[in-house]
Design brief:
alpha+beta, ten-stranded antiparallel sheet, 4 helices, globular
C-alpha cells in the first residue's frame, strides 16, 4: 500500500519590494518557498531526499528556528503562543508554515507565515513571523477574516527590520489562504500613506524528491541569495541618501521581540 499524498508543497514565487519614500527604489527576485504542514514534518523528512528535520542535510528544517520555546516542537510552540494571545486552537487543528528551511546549515527568513485551521478545517487565524538580520523574531497575530478567504491586520511595527524604516510605522498584512496560488502582501504605512510595498506571489508545485532537486538547480543556495540581495539593495538605497536608523535608537519601540539582541549581536538582558 502506498503512502498518502503529502499536503505539504512548494511555491515558486516572485518577491517584489517597492520603496516609495523618501526615494523610490524597486527590485524583484525569484525564489521558491516551502509550505509545510506541521503534522507532516517527519513524513516530509522520510519521503523527500535532501530534506531533514532537526538533523543536518542540504535542506534542514529546525524547530528552534521558529517561535523558540525550549523543549517543545514547533506545533507545541505555536499552540503556546496562540494560547497566550487568547486563541483557542483545538488539538485536532492543523497548521501550515510558509518559510525557508536551512540550506547547508544557513537560514534567513525575512518573514514566515503560519496559517491555522480548526478541527473542521476552517481557517482560524494566521501568524506572520518577521525576522531581521540580527536573528531576532517577532510574531504578529492576524484574526480578521477577509472576503474571499484570508486575513488582514494593520498593526504597529515596533521592530527593527530595516535601517531605512522607522520603528513607529505600521505593518499592513494581507494574506490570502495558500492554495493553487500563494499571495501575500506586507506594506509599511504611516497613517493612510504607504512607504514600502512588499509582495510574494506564485504557484503551487508538488513537494517530492525530483521537484526539490529541480528547484535547487533553478534557485541554488536560495537563503544565501536572499540575504545577498537584501544587503546589495540596502547599499543601493544608502547611495540614494535615504536616512539611516541605528538599531540602538528608540530601543523602547522594539517591543515583543523574541531572541532579542543588541546592536553588537549579543543577547539583550
Amino acid at each position: 500500500m502506498g503512502c498518502a499524498p503529502l499536503r505539504s508543497c512548494l511555491y515558486e514565487c516572485t518577491v517584489m519590494h517597492h520603496r516609495l519614500v523618501p526615494r523610490r527604489h524597486r527590485f524583484n527576485y525569484r525564489v521558491f518557498l516551502f509550505c509545510l504542514d506541521l503534522d507532516e514534518l517527519d513524513a516530509v523528512a522520510e519521503n523527500v531526499a535532501g530534506f531533514s528535520r532537526n538533523a543536518w542535510n542540504f535542506y534542514c528544517f529546525r524547530d528552534r528556528d521558529h517561535l523558540p520555546l525550549p523543549g517543545r516542537d514547533l506545533k507545541e510552540s505555536l499552540r503556546g503562543y496562540l494560547a497566550g494571545e487568547g486563541v483557542d486552537w483545538p488539538e485536532s487543528g492543523r497548521a501550515v508554515l510558509v518559510t525557508f528551511p536551512r540550506v547547508l546549515g544557513y537560514v534567513f527568513n525575512p518573514v514566515s507565515f503560519y496559517f491555522c485551521f480548526d478541527g473542521e478545517g476552517e481557517p482560524l487565524c494566521a501568524v506572520a513571523e518577521v525576522g531581521n538580520t540580527f536573528g531576532e523574531l517577532k510574531p504578529y497575530l492576524l484574526r480578521d477574516r477577509q472576503p474571499g478567504g484570508g486575513f488582514r491586520r494593520v498593526v504597529p511595527k515596533h521592530f527593527y527590520v530595516s535601517p531605512f524604516s522607522d520603528l513607529d510605522l505600521c505593518f499592513d498584512f494581507q494574506l490570502r489562504l495558500p492554495g493553487e496560488r500563494l499571495q501575500v502582501r506586507v506594506d509599511d504605512r504611516r497613517g493612510d500613506s504607504k512607504e514600502l510595498l512588499s509582495t510574494v506571489a506564485g504557484r503551487r508545485v508538488d513537494l517530492d524528491s525530483w521537484t526539490l532537486f529541480w528547484m535547487t538547480l533553478k534557485y541554488p543556495l536560495i537563503t544565501l541569495r536572499v540575504i545577498f540581495l537584501i544587503h546589495w539593495n540596502a547599499l543601493l538605497i544608502w547611495a540614494k541618501r535615504v536616512p539611516f536608523h541605528q538599531k540602538t535608537a528608540n530601543m523602547h519601540l522594539q517591543r515583543g521581540v523574541l531572541r532579542s539582541r543588541d546592536r553588537a549581536g549579543q543577547p539583550s538582558p
